[in-house]
Design goal:
Blueprint lengths: L1 E4 L1 E2 L2 E2 L9 E4 L4 E2 L1 E6 L2 E6 L5 E9 L3 E6 L10 E2 H19 L6 H22 L3 H37 L6 E5 L7 H10 L2 E5 L2 H4 L9 H12 L4 E4 L20 H19 L5 E6 L11 H18 L4 E6 L16 H10 L6 E7 L12 H12 L5 E7 L7 H5 L7 E2 L5 H16 L4 E6 L24 H13 L12
Parallel strand pairs: 1-10, 11-12, 11-19, 12-13, 13-14, 14-15, 15-16, 16-17, 17-19
Antiparallel strand pairs: 1-7, 2-3, 4-5, 4-8, 6-7, 8-9, 9-18
Helix pairs in contact: 1-2, 1-3, 2-3, 3-12, 7-8, 10-12, 12-13
């Protein structure tokens, strides 16, 4: 049995919150497991042999309530102390990462290195402590010091590399984007877009385009494409295919047990969009999230076939456009609950090995209240995850960065929606803006990241991440919008012109 004892104020915790919790194996792939909590002890019955750890939302002083992982441990009769294993897990990852980082010999780097040494000393004291409660308290301190140092080192490196790239001119290829909802564009929206972004992503929702079979509603998309093309604003479109419940039209379920017909209908859907808008679009997300959200339970071979079909058709009909394959929930938490899905890095490797002719990967970084997969990660984890995708050898686009600008309302939490975590201060417009600044700098400091797009321009009812827009619903700017405007000159020099629209 794999079990962890949770201590709080010197005794076993009376309440243990397992929101967002899952088990992780030695290869960082989530594992299926059942949890039971009794008397401050978390018992984990996992379905696979070998060492494993637990990842869960944890309150870390100075950082916030974020997902933290323990070190990988073997099953044993007595429980591990959760805080000790969380601190050991973060210290191990941080020490390994220090070997990869290239820092100038600065005073600030030395100061953070001293904090990491202090965190290591604290965990040694915890391992020698006389009681489990004392060990847990010391480990909590170690975790806080280590995570704050890791975030600060991540920020130092990002600023250093971003400055170098801007000075070398490499940053001229980096662009800022934003998705929009398809309400009719007006002059104020156009001004907000012109002031802050370099390209606009238009949502392609099959359910909205063809709610009834062979009855098409192109008007919202037509209006936006016409407006953006007139203003010579580069356009991205996403996704050509997605099999999430939010995207699939209800009539398509009639064919859920007939893959050949579904594939043919998907082919015609993609071809129809490409015929209509191909000459206007600079980049296409050919397929999105099928590794995680697959309402027709396609098998591995069918998912690869659909990926190849959508990418190949996009390349054939828009040869000058960039073709993306989008990865959602890139830490793969969903795999712990549904073994018919595919872990994100495995799916990415599968399509590479299969020779699918796409140009780049796309990643969504959405955090906030709602469901598993949107629980908050700290900046060190985000940076490390981006580096993992770099090993695949393809460029990367961040296609949907987003966090809320206010805490979730109490009624939503009471109805079963969990908070999804927060920074050290509750979500606010200022906290959202600070998160945006850090994520943009971390992402664009990576030489393989070619763009960062915020997910929603404006707040509106029914958003996946409530209050996640750059603008309020009345189109007044939030602090995050102002930060986006301020960051652009640091990455894209004023002399750089946006690429022309395709003829």
């Amino acid at each position: 049995m794999l079990s962890f004892a949770v201590y709080e104020q010197g005794q076993l915790a009376k309440n243990v919150d397992l929101e967002g919790a899952y088990i992780v194996g030695t290869d960082d792939v989530p594992l299926r497991a059942d949890f039971n909590v009794e008397g401050g002890i978390i018992e984990c019955s996992k379905r696979a042999a070998g060492p494993a750890g637990i990842a869960l939302l944890w309150n870390v002083e100075g950082v916030g309530r974020v997902i933290v992982e323990t070190i990988r441990v073997q099953e044993r009769d007595r429980p591990y102390i959760l805080q000790v294993e969380l601190a050991r897990g973060r210290l191990l990852r941080l020490i390994h990462k220090l070997e990869d980082w290239d820092f100038a010999d600065s005073l600030e780097f030395k100061a953070q290195q001293q904090k990491i040494d202090a965190a290591r000393d604290l965990i040694i004291e915890a391992l020698k402590a006389g009681t489990p409660a004392e060990a847990a308290a010391l480990a909590d301190q170690s975790l806080s010091v280590a995570m704050q140092a890791g975030e600060r080192l991540t920020q130092i490196q990002a600023k250093q590399l971003l400055t170098q790239r801007a000075e070398s001119g490499v940053g001229t290829r980096r662009f800022f984007g934003c998705s929009v909802c398809l309400s009719p564009p007006n002059d104020l929206i156009q001004k907000r877009l012109t002031d802050a972004i370099d390209f606009v992503t238009l949502p392609l929702v099959w359910r909205d385009i063809e709610a009834t079979e062979q009855a098409f509603n192109w008007r919202p998309l037509d209006g936006w494409v016409e407006t953006l093309a007139k203003n010579k604003t580069p356009i991205h479109a996403a996704p050509l295919l997605s099999f999430s419940e939010q995207n699939v039209p209800a009539w398509l379920y009639l064919w859920e047990h007939d893959f050949d017909t579904l594939r043919d209908l998907a082919f015609e859907h993609v071809r129809r969009i490409m015929n209509r808008y191909g000459q206007y679009i600079n980049a296409w997300t050919a397929i999105s999230g099928v590794h995680a959200t697959n309402c027709f339970t396609f098998n591995f071979e069918q998912l690869i076939e659909l990926t190849r079909m959508s990418v190949s058709l996009a390349k054939q009909m828009s040869p000058r456009g960039t073709t993306l394959v989008e990865i959602v929930t890139p830490w793969g938490e969903y795999y712990a609950a549904n073994q018919r899905t595919i872990p994100p890095l495995l799916y990415a490797d599968m399509i590479l090995q299969s020779g699918v002719p796409f140009d780049a990967f796309a990643l969504r970084l959405q955090f906030g209240p709602g469901s598993q997969g949107t629980c908050l990660r700290d900046f060190f984890q985000i940076s490390t995850m981006l580096d993992q995708f770099a090993k695949l050898g393809k460029p990367l686009h961040i296609t949907a960065a987003e966090v809320p600008s206010q805490p979730p309302p109490k009624e939503s939490l009471e109805s079963g929606t969990f908070s999804g975590g927060s920074r050290s201060k509750p979500w606010s417009e200022e906290v959202q803006a600070n998160w945006l600044e850090n994520v943009v700098e971390v992402a664009l400091s990576k030489p393989f990241v070619e763009s960062v797009s915020w997910h929603n321009l404006t707040d509106y009812s029914g958003m996946q991440v409530p209050s996640g827009g750059l603008l309020r619903s009345d189109l007044t700017p939030k602090e995050a919008y102002k930060k986006f405007v301020a960051l652009r000159p640091l990455v894209v020099p004023a002399s750089t012109k946006a690429p022309p629209m395709q003829e």
